[in-house]
Design goal:
This protein has 287 residues and is of the alpha/beta class. The protein contains nine helices and twelve strands.
């Protein structure tokens, strides 16, 4: 029951209608008997500063941040962790004594999900599709884990900027980008061990789309990780699975990054399996 003691958190984005985060977090709060509620908070572009002022004013304990605001919120925070500053994006805000502290839990969620099936990124090579906020977290996490990264993006300038930003840091492995006019079919795919799609291509309702050429094969030693979680198996993952590559969907990353945020807000260990099963059931109900 919501009452005068209920602690509020939420998701800042535009739009936020289709997110699983409220269902996932509220199931976790209920499982632990915590008097918290997680709300979708649609914030139009151009109103981010007002939204940031509103969090402590309304007594929020924190918030998640999704597209397109992961970078836009940063100038309005009192403190940003080193990793979030390095990534250049914030996906979690914690309100501490009225101050807004920005974190990024995407990298943690990505690596925890990637390592679960036994993949060890150290010494490997990854091809990352995309150069947005999610890509920044993935590239940073991989390079910190000593995995060499090549970025392929439709807009080469964005890929080059992301690579240059990472090259300016003291990371464990190099980050490069594919040159202008380079197609995926031009690359020596055997040199890579991991493909990560950080773009929204293939996300519901456009499930027939894929960021990979339809007739291009996958090396059988690859792991293909698609950050899209709705549908649970994208066209990219289905194609990869049918060709013998191992696949990982985006739901695990959603749950793991959310669990880290949950623990920051509440100080309690997140019930990860409850969060995951709640998301899985919600996705099934939507099919």
């Amino acid at each position: 029951m919501i009452d005068g003691h209920t602690q509020l958190v939420g998701l800042i984005g535009w739009p936020v209608e289709h997110t699983l985060s409220p269902t996932m977090h509220n199931a976790a709060f209920d499982a632990l008997g915590l008097n918290y509620r997680y709300l979708p908070l649609p914030v139009e572009p151009g109103r981010v500063e007002a939204a940031m002022r509103g969090l402590p004013a309304l007594g929020f304990r924190g918030a998640n941040v999704t597209v397109p605001h992961k970078q836009a919120v940063m100038p309005h925070l009192e403190e940003i962790t080193d990793s979030a500053q390095a990534i250049g994006a914030v996906n979690t805000i914690v309100v501490q004594d009225g101050r807004l502290v920005g974190h990024n839990t995407d990298g943690h969620g990505f690596l925890a999900t990637l390592r679960k099936p036994g993949f060890k990124p150290a010494g490997k090579r990854a091809l990352v599709l995309g150069a947005g906020g999610a890509a920044r977290a993935v590239v940073y996490a991989l390079a910190q884990a000593n995995c060499t990264v090549a970025i392929h993006n439709r807009t080469v300038q964005r890929a080059a900027k992301l690579a240059h930003d990472m090259q300016d840091m003291d990371l464990c492995a190099p980050v490069t980008w594919t040159p202008i006019n380079t197609q995926i079919t031009d690359l020596n795919l055997d040199q890579f061990d991991l493909l990560v799609n950080t773009t929204p291509v293939g996300m519901w309702p456009h499930t027939d789309n894929a960021p990979w050429p339809k007739n291009l094969s996958f090396p059988s030693h690859w792991i293909v990780f698609d950050l899209v979680y709705n549908p649970p198996e994208t066209r990219l993952l289905r194609h990869a699975r049918e060709l013998g590559a191992r696949t990982i969907g985006g739901l695990g990353m959603l749950v793991r990054q959310g669990a880290r945020a949950f623990e920051m807000w509440t100080g309690e260990k997140a019930p990860v399996e409850i969060m995951r099963s709640t998301c899985e059931q919600t996705l099934k109900d939507k099919i």
